[in-house]
Amino acid sequence: MFFGLAFSPDNTLIAAATDEGHGRIWSTATGELKQTVTVDDERTLSLAFSPDGKTIATGSELIRIWDVETGELQHILTGPGDRKLSFSAIYYGHVWPSEIWQVLFSSDGKKLVSVCPEAHCVRIWDTETWTLDKTILGQEAGISPDDAHLAVRVNDTTIQLYRTLDGQLQRTLEDTEKKFASFTFAPDSKVIATHSGSEIMLWNIESGELIKTLEDPERKVSAFSFSPDGKILISGTRRCGLRVWDVESGSCLVRLEHDDGARDVQSSCGYITGPPAFDVLLEDGAGKVALAFPDGTVRIWDIEWSQDP
């Protein structure tokens, strides 16, 4: 079962994290398996390519940094409490330590952010020294395209915006009614999009005001990504569906559904699974969308749209 997907910055590779401890890397052109990195006795839940595409970070019980070409392990990042059961894990009777469900690089490659939701822990790492810079309370994180903002989802109702440079809190977004399932930044770094249930909400970062709401009447949203110009938003849904939205008008331009997209209740290792793994890599007028399906395949779509007004 795949837990995470990531395109390389140059669009030539796609990597997938599996519950069996593997990080697999394929050619997007041929589908050929190019590299496999493996962690023993842990499941790999997240991964991310560095901006130069030469290294890949994987998250399991620890963060590991690998050479993409050779598959060689370069660094293991550890912090306080790693490999220990968190309070929430003990409370719910889990037998595995807290795990890293999200890793992401800043666009300049100088910072790596990791997230352990069970421990409510967001960590910022310096990639020159591979040492821990700062720890913030939270369950999800995202860095704005201009690297100025670090957004942290503290809980279902609160997102905090920090200055990436020094970790200073700048603004707090709250929605106690609809709540936040996840978020992503717009390309101009002035808008942040959140989703809850079947709704996608766009917020002004400076004022904290809600700008617009997009609603899918058929499926709950599971993930999303903006086009480079911010005019198009592509969202994944439960059961491996896809939506293409016009941001300005709020209209849904394309709906794709798949008969074999229903998720199994449990993965091959017996763990309960969530929404489909999803990643998007967009350029001007074109891009690729990848979805992981329950049958163990990763499917990639080439997409194009007109630049004409």
UniProtKB/TrEMBL annotation:
Keywords: Repeat, WD repeat. WD repeats lie at residues 1-36, 214-255. Pfam families: WD40. It comes from the Eukaryota. This is WD40 repeat-like protein. It comes from Aureobasidium pullulans.
